[in-house]
Amino acid sequence: MRRMNVGLTAALIWIGLSALAPVAAEKIAITGGTVHTVGKAGVLSPGTVLIDGNKIISVHEGAKIPAGYRIIDVPGRIVTPGFVNAFTNLGLGEVELSGGTTDYKADLAAMGAALDAGSALNMDSSLIPITRMEGVTLAASAPIASLTIFGGQGAVIRLTEANPVIKPRAFMVADLSEKGAKLAGNSHAAAWAYLEAALDEAEEEANSKATQREGLLPLTDRKALTPVISGDLLLMLRVNRKADIAQVLALKSRRPKLHLAILDGREAWRLADELAAADIPIILNPYHNQPKTFDSLAATSANAARLQAAGAIIAFSTYADDNGNHNTRLIPQMAGNAIVSGLPPEAAMKAVTLNPMKIFGLDKTHGSLEPGKAANIVVWSGDPFEVMEAPTHVMIAGEMMPLTSRQTKLAKRYLGLDKGDGTFANKRPE
């Protein structure tokens, strides 16, 4: 009996070691389609993308494919980098039924800047596959300002269940819009004074050992802001009105080390030349084209086109009214709207692929179809900016993703309920 136990133990150990052994990376060739590289190679038609494991090995014109590659032939289709939503709350919220489903809000937290999105990510959210099957492979996910103007630190994530974070603590969020003004004391002046005082305290923290003194911010927030002061951490400021955008430019002038980006920016076009000259990118929602509040009296659907024409870097986000989750899948439609309003198609493509990666310092490894970069690739049935077209293949880090979600499963279950013979196609699960 003892010999049998020893043998069984050895077998189990072998099985366990086999499970831990590295699996040979698959080699895949996507060929036959029109490839938009968003890189130096431009558009290749027909083109071939060679993938080995999680990296792109080659992108070239024609259909020359070395031996050993599994071929995915996509004639007549469009091949692009995976799309990026540049500001969301993905993985931090579901349906707002309880506090446990809304981790992007911290209404009762004593801290703000120290909050870290990466510590609360839940990639089991049903919104992940819904977004992924629409061609979005990467996203910036962050909390929103709740008790102070600071929402906390956001992460850049890929929409996979395993190892989703590709850059933790990638940026700091602060709200200087009408909401931020309310949080700071019902005044834009108070919001800007709060930001300046917070940056002063962070600078003192970085240059002093007297870390326990009383101040505006708790010690955790002061420490979290120290990399902002040095320019090592992107500070993303949510502003809309021209006056606040001018304050962002003045802040950059006073503190040139700061690495700044604008979120929302509904009147950013009014200072397009100045933003381009200051190298301050704008993450905007192309749907924002109405004067909904006093902050956005000059909102226009031409915002993106005018900023791009001035030379400013733009990226797109579905963020709107403190909800960056449930419409994240609409990035292709938003880019299409921007094109209708004057943005060149190639600029729209960059706004949802390479530009967000530049903003977050990841453009050397992500955002275009070039050798050595991450294999985040989408094959589209047609023009990705046409609302009736859709992805036929979605690859993230070299792995093909299933094009299913809770919505598709429900549709499959409930379509054709009545079979016409008194029975139903759907049955209650046992």
Write a short abstract of this structure.
With 430 residues, the protein is α/β, with parallel strands linked by helices. The protein has helices spanning 2-20, 127-132, 178-184, 188-207, 219-230, 242-254, 272-277, 303-310, 331-340, 345-351, 354-359, 406-414; strands at 27-36, 43-52, 55-61, 70-73, 78-81, 83-88, 136-141, 150-158, 165-175, 234-239, 260-264, 282-284, 314-316, 377-380, 391-396, 399-400.
Q: Could you say which overall geometry the principal axes of the C-alpha atoms support?
A: globular
| The CATH top-level class label of the largest domain | Alpha Beta
CATH superfamily of the largest domain: Metal-dependent hydrolases
- Largest sheet composition: 8 strands, mixed
**Helix run count:** 12
Distance between the termini: 42 Å
Extract low-pLDDT stretches: 1-24
Indicate how many domains the architecture comprises. Answer: 2
Structural class: alpha/beta
Beta-strand proportion: 15-25%
Going by CATH, the architecture of the largest domain would be Alpha-Beta Barrel
* Named CATH topology of the largest domain: TIM Barrel
Mean pLDDT: 88
Helix content: 25-40%
Radius of gyration, Cα only, in angstroms?
24 Å
**How many distinct beta strands?**
16
